[in-house]
Amino acid sequence: MIHNKIRSLAVPAVALTAAALLAGCVTPVPVYQTRYPYQPAAAPVYPAAPAYNQAVYVETGIVANIEVLRSETPPVAPSGGGAVVGGLVGGVLGNQIGHGSGRAAATMLGVVGGALAGNAVEARNGAGRVYESYRVSVQMSNGSYRSFDVPSPGDLRIGDRVRIDGGQISRY
């Protein structure tokens, strides 16, 4: 009889503990501030157009090389939080199955399986990521070289004639 009362109190306690741990994983909603009393936003500022007698400087050249640059973010070591949360959730779910010693076995299997699954999810989310960008080297018409780091070379190929206008590279 006392055993049944303890069991009837243990299930809600485990459920509340799991809910409290999961509530810590929730990202807070950003709070947007409003101006009161209402004040209109400042007018945007645009760069002044060059005067009609001021020439816009455009350079030309030929693509000499295109390199692939790879960068990688380091993996994050698992903290164990995924295993703990997974074990709690698995234990609660396993406790809902069966009666007597079958329920205890299902609870233990749920704890172990949930911990393994939670740890795997945490490890996958903390894995390092690889990013690629490109360095386009251009031999300018005056003989000098300039390099441009771009996310994608687009339709540029080695030997293409290009123009550089305001730091932007494009086919010519």
Automatic annotation (TrEMBL):
PROSITE patterns: PROKAR_LIPOPROTEIN. Residues 1-23 form the signal peptide. Pfam families: Rick_17kDa_Anti (PF05433). It is found in: Membrane. Keywords: Membrane, Signal. Residues 81-122 form the Glycine zipper 2TM domain. GO terms for cellular component: outer membrane. This is Glycine zipper 2TM protein.
